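Everyone, carefully examine this protein record:
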Amino acid sequence: MRERLQSIASRCVGISNYDSGFDEGLKAALSDILSGIQGLEAEAGKSNLAEDVLKSIKDFKSAVENDLEELRNFKRLNKQFRDATEELEGIERKFRALESRTSVACSKYFERRQEYAQASQRIKNASQSDIEKLRKKFLDRAASIAEGYELLLSGDSITVEKLFDAILENPASINEAELFTEPRRKGFFEFLIRRKDEEAAREAKVAVLKHVSQELIDKILPVKEAESQELAEREAEFADLRALEAACKEAEAQRAELEERREELRSKLMKIKKEAAFAYSEHEKLLGIKEKYLSIVNELSPKL
């Protein structure tokens, strides 16, 4: 049995001749060691050896069987690793090419969109300038007309500035404008006379306010219509924006899809590398196996 054990030890030393689990001969070498241990186990079973010795031989056999199983797992993992690496390399090439196309497509879109925004803003600025001039004139006149009265719109008290904004948003709202003042109470007849005079004055003021407001509307509407027309023309001029935007979004979506797959593969490769069986890709792992086996042999040798 000692001679058989020494033969096994010699085979264990031979493990260091292999570079890694990639070497096809490693599996045969481990299988040969296993065969030798099985023979030793059979011979030891016929001898009057202590139970701890028989257990050590059995554990030795289990260790080699486990390494053979791990080596098979390594072969499987290595194929997965190669396939994932190959796919990742292909995706990296596609990603770089797509990234370049995305940059070009989106640069064209953003530049064109900026041109459109600037052209549109110039139109709006010109329109706003005209409206501001009208606003100043209206506020001056409306403030003079409404002086001494409370200005109401749809029953709510407002300023002349708010009235302008309301007319700008909805010209028809001028029909809801009113002026209101509280009468000064004195004698009854004096009150009636004053009330009648004040009401006539108020109605006249309201009429003037609505007339001034209508003049404003008549001037603002052409400005707003001109703005709408010019904006429509600019939109037609930049009709290619939608196609450019679609091309940019499509390129970005494809890039995001590739990037997601790239990260999945990178994660998969990292996971494979952390697998215990993947350690068989390194020569150090084989040296560790050799030392483990020889340590068991050294422990068994005096007991046989």
